[in-house]
Automatic annotation (TrEMBL):
Taxonomic path: Bacteria, Pseudomonadati, Bacteroidota, Cytophagia, Cytophagales
InterPro entries tied to this protein: ASHA1/2-like_C, START-like_dom_sf
Record-linked SUPFAM superfamilies: Bet v1-like
Gene3D superfamilies in alphabetical order: 3.30.530.20
Record-given protein name: SRPBCC domain-containing protein
Membership in a protein family: Belongs to the AHA1 family.
Species, as recorded: Dawidia cretensis
Boundaries of every Activator of Hsp90 ATPase homologue 1/2-like C-terminal domain copy: 18-158
Length: 159
């Protein structure tokens, strides 16, 4: 469903040439997250990161260049968000509940991000599903961001 009054679901998948164990570990390490999770053109700062069921996190993605086409959700140049790990099934699934820190109601609400890892012959199928995406996030921007993040993850774990 993708209407102007309903929140939507965005998803992307990629086969990454690494084991589910290696990819899962990259999701649970703050330094790794800072290295691969921000989409192209952004960088991360981790303020809090407690990777356990119910554990909380808080981080920001900042734009690398001051001249960028998309305005940040928290400030002109940054997206600050917090959340918690709703579910962690080792080497199989990570469920995060995320909220953006923004005064703009278009970015309000809790977004659920479910990442599923399925072992395949030549690697791992990594499937990311974002539910209840805030209306302020354009579908095409979010799709590019998810794809960029998956490419970064592949580059990080395949080296």
């Amino acid at each position: 469903m993708n209407t102007t009054t309903s929140k939507r679901t965005d998803s992307a998948a990629r086969v990454i040439h690494a084991t589910p164990e290696v990819i899962y570990a990259a999701y649970l390490d703050a330094k790794a997250i800072a290295a691969w999770r921000p989409p192209q053109g952004m960088h991360a700062e981790i303020y809090e990161f407690n990777p356990r069921p119910g554990g909380t996190f808080r981080m920001s993605f900042g734009y690398d260049e001051s001249d960028h086409s998309v305005t940040g959700k928290t400030s002109e140049h940054a997206d600050v968000f917090h959340g918690h790990f709703a579910e962690l099934i080792p080497h199989q699934r990570i469920v995060e509940l995320v909220e953006f820190e923004s005064d703009d109601p278009a970015f309000a609400g809790e977004m659920k991000i479910t990442t599923t890892l399925v072992r395949e012959r030549h690697g791992t199928n990594v499937n990311v599903v974002c539910e209840n995406v805030p209306l302020g996030i354009k579908a095409e921007d979010h799709q590019q961001g998810i794809q960029s993040t998956l490419a970064n993850l592949a580059q990080y774990v395949e080296r």
